[in-house]
Amino acid sequence: MIGPDVARIAERLGLAADTATAIGQLAAETGLDVDAAYAVQTALLQRRLDRGERLVGLKMGLTSRAKMAQVGVDEVIWGRLTDVMRVPDGGTVDTGAYIHPRVEPEVAFLLDRLPEPGEPIGEFTDAVRAVAPAIELIDSRYADFTFSLPDVVADNTSAAAFVVGPWSPVPDGLENLGVLLEIDGRVAQVGSTAAILGDPRRALDEGIRLAGRHGVRLREGWLFLAGAATAAVPLRPGAHVRAVVEKLGTASLRAAS
Ligand code: OOG
Ligand code: MG
Questions:
Q1: pLDDT for res 118
Q2: Helix locations, 131-254, DSSP H
Q3: Test site for ligand 1: of 13, 41, 62, 106, most ligand atoms within 8 A of the Cβ
Q4: Among 30, 72, 195, 244, which is least packed, fewest CB within 10 Å?
């Protein structure tokens, strides 16, 4: 049997992102399974590297029930972050560069030295140098933000842009910090870091394990987004967005009007 055409699917998804044009789901029609979907993701990353972008870390997706319920997919997934996706804290994005952007509050880790594959993480603070509040801007390349598990994996888990707030040393206890997402000064989502796999530190174990299955090793100096603690909210032109994480502070962005 002929497998799905990984290069062609990556090209369709890459063009959809570059031109902010939604496409239909691909997995059912092309017979794409989850393993082949990660191969598409790798090809999409290569497309970005070929135009000079740098891989700066990984993001986890669907690590909270709120997110799983919002998109109707209930598996933890991971994707790639590049330097071009990073927006400075307080920076401005153009919603016209995206199809149907949404924002969600996250916790970011700055990775230190990680154990060899197969070895457990000793102390979390050996593996993570600092933590920060963050905002992820997601933008599914599929029409109506609707997809299956292999579709969203192939689409680099809807990754589009992200903001990292100020770094802090790892506080004692990351497992139950209050999280708010504010739009124009109004609370749009309320949650807790407990929503992220019970403790966002677990997201790192999952990231090491799941990326390791596809031969990807996390590196010192990489960023790591642990996954949204709440559902995502549509980003409208002119909006001012803040993610506030107890003990860690605030990350913010503006959408140009
Ligand atoms: C998939 C990406 C999920 C998260 O933090 O859960 C994600 C999506 O919702 O489109 O980034
Ligand atoms: Mg996210």
A1: 73
A2: 149-154, 200-212
A3: 62
A4: 72
pLDDT digits (tens, 9 = 90+) for 177-215: 999 999 999 999 999 999 999 999 999 999 999 999 999
Dist. CA 67 → ligand 1 center (Å):
7
Please answer whether residues 63 and 203 qualify as being in contact, where contact means their C-beta atoms are separated by less than 8 angstroms: yes
Q: How far apart are CA 148 and CA 27, in angstroms?
A: 8
pTM of the model: 0.96
Is residue 62 in contact with ligand 1, taking CB distance under 6 Å? yes
Q: Ligand 2 center to residue 229 CA distance, Å?
A: 9
71 lines ligand 1 (CB under 6 A): yes
Computed from CA positions of residues 40, 45, 49, 51, in that sequence, does the dihedral angle turn out positive or negative? positive
By the 8 A CB rule, do 151 and 26 touch?
A: yes
